[in-house]
Fold these 4 entries.
Entry 1:
Amino acid sequence: MRAIRLPALSIASSFGASAATWVLLQQFAVRGLVAIKFLAIGRMLGPAAIGSVSVALLAVAIAEALSDTGLAQAVIQGEHAPTRSQLGAVWTTLTARGLLISLLLVALAPLLSSQFHLDGSLVLIQLAALLPLLRGLASPTYYVVQRERRFQHIAGVEVAAAFVDCSVGLALAYLGAGAASVLIGLVAGESLKSVLTWATMTPRPPVRPVWSGIGQYVGFSRWIWASSVINLLLNQFDKVVVGKLLGPAQLGGYQMSSRLAQMLLADAAIAMSQYLFPTFAAHHRRDPKAASRLIRVYLMAAAIGLAAFVEVLRLIAEPMFSLILGAAWLPAVPLFRILVVNMAVGALIAVLVSYLRAIGDAKATVHASAIQVVVLLISAPLAVRWWGVTGIAWSMTLGLGCAAAWMLYRTLRARTA
């Protein structure tokens, strides 16, 4: 009788510079630190403070989505690695974008403060305005490191930045800095990350304005920009409605429910997409059939795991909120039970998006987002009328389900083509 020999698992390969292990460790460390920071500060400061911070971060998210260049994804997906001159053009473009966003947010801070009932807390929006500038100043070699799948290096940078963010934020909140402590921590973390991209990653682009060489990335990146603009409506519509109509306290409850569900479900898939996108792209360049087999395995494993985890989270939602956040946050439990379903679908979408972009079908994700917009526009008015804020959550979940179905169809079609 022939013995069945199983392949031995190599510890060295599991912790090689390109191993997925580093993505998982990064996910565990970074998301763990983010969870500690927001949950602890949320318990100390309450829903209103978290809602005020959410408005400032919402303004940044809207501005960044409207101006998304898609250059990061274009560098990773491209057939050839960028030259040093091309990296300089990418850095020039991203720095200019970050500066313009920051100036725009500072100029609009009084208007945003009045529209979202921040009671004159201009400093929150002004602090948040520093984030796009710091991100733009970072070295674009970070995307080359992603392209080359040096996940160990990326993990080191991301964990260091998250640790500084968490430490500074918690210390300032404990000392009485209030809602500003969240944003000051984010600024400190982004500052360190930008410094580390220049200090530890090569080749370094020229630190001078360079515009030539950016043209080859525009064709691919325009689909990323289109997707970002559509996703702006999809990802921020519910928060804008809650913040505008109900104020910071209600937005804080909604945002914390969403963030907690995201931490427990979607963030793992989003972090894994850092590994999956360049990995799928590399497999597709060598053998498209191998890439199609790989996506099938990932989708099956993700679907089974997410379904089981969602059921557990829905069952323990109330005691978990009471234990972690306190009684003040219990009204958000019904929202959380809906949003875990939402985030589970979002996790599957993150895997599908990684594959479709890796094979060059970025427009499929734009089409999926457009489908989601149509579903949202049709269902949201009725859902809000019948169920209020929970109706918004269910409408968003329905739209995500339709988008996921479309991307799954395009993935299977590409696999069988």
Entry 2:
Amino acid sequence: MTDSTIATSAPTTLTAEPLTLPCGVTIKNRFYKSAMNEALAGRDCAPTEAHVRLYRTWAQGGAGVLVTGNVMVDHMQLGEPGNVVVEDERDLAMLRRWAAAGTENGAHCWMQINHPGRQSPITINPHPVAPSAGKVAGEYGKFFAEPTELTREQIHDIIRRFANTARIAKKAGFTGVEIHAAHGYLINQFLSPLDNRRTDEYGGSLENRARFLFDVFDAVRKTVGPKFPIAVKLNSSDVPIAIKVNERDGAPGGFSEEESVWVMKQLEARGVDLIDISGGTYSKPVIQTNDGAAEDRRRGVYFTDFARRIKGELSVPIALTGGFRNADDMERALDEGITQMIGIARPLALVPDLPNRIIRDGWRGSVDLPRVTTGIKHLDKAFGGILVISWFELQIHRIARGKHPNPRIGGMRALLFSLKQHGPAALTPRRRKGRQ
């Protein structure tokens, strides 16, 4: 972390301003801790005391909203090693402890609820399901089994599962939910004409491809009521950011920006409280390097062109996540009105109290993420994305054990840590939860 000037008294900043959501709930400030895979659940997929310690630390660090990592709605369908699953109330006591910790210090804690569809590594799920049959394309395809096409009955069961998980989240004390409809997971698969080749009411036209997302949203809203925040994480397009960060054409034939805008408007009409803008899929990953701060400087804040495009078309609050490393960029984005919430992930794995430092202490430095390397070039090339994920998971686990993050830890130690935690599944690709 690069230091700059420390103010003697905290100035009034846009990041410190509260935000009232369409449902009437007020968030204390504009810091939105975006989802990262904590990888803290055991083989039983249950939340643990480590989740409690981790989210208490982040809540005390000053963020307005903490979004959990993936919480899956079906224990047979996991997206990554260490996922929590909530499909009944067996873990309600620990969920209540997790929610209570995450809502300390006036923070909101929202559960991100998800289903991986075909994007479930073969090492943990040899029988994935999807809108249509067909393997994951690209270099990652070998890591995933061929999925079976969902029947209408199975689709309706998954919709019920999303609503049930949201119900349990509310009962446990989480103050909102985020429906994950991005990053190539199941809802994104329904939205994409590349992945969804159905000929029934859930396939074909955009209206039909979006039906699954709308059905999930409506079922969740009916279950949790009108005053409970519901966010949706949605791809601006299926374009790989590392390749075409500011272009409007997504993956050829995939979910496009024009389609994304239409879906956002429909969600706004249905009463969504916040849209979390993202992008990329497994086949077209968001980031493919481990260059840290150098990568950040090349790219800057993600999705700004798209955010400017929709500024006048939507009134629902937007969370823009990715590339925010200093207060000046955050203030500029809020002042320009291209976002209402500052999404941060990876910096909070190194500086858990970053919101406090900026709002309370007036800190104006920059969080410089390190280049993650094993020191062996061919290993770095072979495990680039996995290496970065493992390194940030290790930092998260340190926080969860009551230790401080340690940016001096090397990539080799991170790989060994991940292998010890997850076994062979650690070496399969995972969506980069820690990428922001």
Entry 3:
Amino acid sequence: MTENKKVLVAEDSSVIINLTKNVLMFENYHITAVKNGKQLLDKLATEDFDLILMDINMPIMDGIECTKAVRALVDPKKAKIPIIAITGNYKNYTLDDFKKAGLDDYIQKPLDYDHLLATVKKHLA
């Protein structure tokens, strides 16, 4: 078995954080959660992660702004971490909009947890 992959979840909804943790921890992923983009950048400054799940609509710093900040990091390993958008407003964006912002993929809300798990596994393979 491979080492536990570390997933950083940026999401302002405690319900979604808890459900996501439950789904991913069942697969032995190590989950860390933050409530906004600023907290994500603070956490990323002190720890390494294998993947980020990024809510697009968060207070303080939204997911698009935060993704651009991650992509601009000096550390090339951290700047290239796969980032998957989580959004309820996917109709306001195209996949091309997400790609331009630096996001690798997206999952729409309400979350389909089988799809979430498959998308996470695809980017961590």
Entry 4:
Amino acid sequence: MMARDRSLIVAGAIFALLLVAPYGLGLIGQGYLTGLLMRAMLLAIAALSLDLLVGQGGMVSFGHSAFVGLGAYALAIGLQAGIDSLLLLTLIALAVSGLFALVTGALALRTSGVYFLMITLAFGQMTYFTLTSLAAYGGDDGLTLWSLATLFGSDVAQNAGQIYFVILAVMVATWWLVHRIGQSRFGRVLRGARDNPERAEVMGFSVFRYRLTAYVIAGMIASLSGVLTAQQNEFVSPALATWQHSGDLLVILVIGGLGSRNGAILGAFFVVIVQDLLGAVTPDWRLIYGPLLVLVVLFAKGGLNRLFAPARQGPAA
């Protein structure tokens, strides 16, 4: 079986399990587990967007969570201003994050390697401190959303049971979009520029333009995670834009498998579930979590995705 076919089968199985999971969990009264799944899916959306940069483009960003924070605050500020349409608020979040990505990406992409990592970290921290300075919207303490956005005038996106399927639909759409980008000419050029930028330039492709486009797309997708996180939690906080959150997204990609869409999803669920299980056992769960990550990276070459699709995929191979 071809690796691509195997990958599609695995993705279909994951989506099917997530589609029926709320019904099975509802029978045993485990609403908390449904919330855990939503948290993992929200992380998966952000991780899928980052994989477009890291796995496809070879651009390691340490400030990607800035876009998640921008998306969340676009929703919160819009609600405060009296806008209650989730679609309109999402468009505002996409516009804000896209403009921010265009400006910061145009500057960051004039560097490469560790310099690119550091300048994205700087932009991420700049976003974090900007959000903490918004005293009218809670500052350091964050902001509770006393009203939520509506979807086509209904409370579908407000109901705890129904927003699960909204998040799932967005995650599936994100997976499909990133998959299509990876299979397109744009994706092939992006990977070619990752492996040999000089040859890509000689062949007539503008590496800077392709990378900037990928950076903007990734930032806009990440803002969707922020919008839905704010809507689901009914709360926004500058913590969404911290460099630690960006680090979590990179950990998810490494554990799941770089350059594989399924790996971003598997890594997100692994991180969320393991953190929750260890947290239930001991308050010092990080002492176990850290060495566990080291073991996974050392012995699970290619990430969790390799367990299901052992063929060569992207840089992780």
